[in-house]
Amino acid sequence: MQGEYTVLQEVTESSSLAISAYNAEWKSHHALLSFMSNHNETVLRKMNESESASGRPYFIALLTSGCISISAEALFQNMSQDDQKINEFTDKRGKRRSQNEWPIVYSKEYDVKLCGLQKLHPFDAEKWRHIFLNLKKENMLSDETVSTPVEADAEMLLLVHTQKYLNSLKWSWKVAKITEIPAIAIIPNWIINQRYLKPMRFQVGGSVLAGELAIHRGWSINIGGGFHHCSGNEGGGFCSYADITLLIKWLFKFYPQRVKTAMIVDLDAHQGNGHERDFFNDEKVFIMDVFNREIYPRDSPAKEAIKCMVELESYTSDSEYLDLVERKLERSLHKFHPDILVYNAGTDILSGDPLGRLDISAEGIIRRDEIVFMKARERRVPIVMLTSGGYLKKTAEIISRSILNLEALNLISR
User: Fold this and answer.
1) Which listed residue (228, 229, 270, 275) is catalytic?
2) How many CB atoms within 10 Å of residue 149?
3) How many C-beta atoms surround the C-beta of residue 151 within 10 A?
């Protein structure tokens, strides 16, 4: 918001203005146009130079007596140009992003196919494809309108990981430990790299792209990602790369004027000890973590990085859970004002999940996602959603329903 106030101050330093800022969609432009009457080139220029934190222009209604005026025709033209400007951009990997694409990220490279050994872990290694196909079936997405990432390369990964750690992934026993599938230790590493690590690198690239999309479009969803047990120095819990840490550090590096602070809202059933270890004592990053205290990883040192910690008992149900999430998130956003919100939306909180051991219904998960998006959007904070954990086959359908619900409520739109 500071940029918008600065614009007004530069134009009318001696005027007393009442300002009402709206993060409006294009359908609201006509109502605003009828409100404005004359033309002021300085305001137009400043509005074009300044973008809101959500990637949408702020439409400023000047409510005092005619100290600034702007023509409807000129404002309409500038809004149209600004809409196209913010919806089309070239990402930091050099790929042009069209305004026709949804800020929903997916690649067919996401799925893990490791000679059938992936079935030895409870995780649904095809969850991501099922989500995409469900959204495609509902005519929300298509191959042409989904945002496709590129694989995270060594240069990108080294922004977070040490070379020593990346080299350790060349040993099959190391990957077996991270994935918690002992049989992987006997598989040639080149197969592991192609069938497991490469899909993970694509999902990491997807998380980074989602971060950039959120800055330009106000929101984004990576159908994959959310590897919250991996830190820069160590993997674990099926998480080989620290995509959450990388996403935030990427934005800090390449968008330093727009992203100076970040909030992680981790609502996976497990403690997000990876990003917590990475951002220990980092005042630029606020971590809210709601997790089952009785399950993996029980990482006490990492808990010291959590600014808002909610430790749940096993089999916590909808009413208590949703009340805690809403109250604690409201309090966190009142205390800390982030430039980006990274939402780790694990569905292993679902009743019957063998690893999460909570008792949240499908409707509870959909409502949870709705609450988080609503809190971010009403504050115009760009939000990135990552799908993270979820160990039942039906979680793909629930995630799909939740995304469709967000669209139905106009919390997300193309």
Assistant:
1) 229
2) 26
3) 17
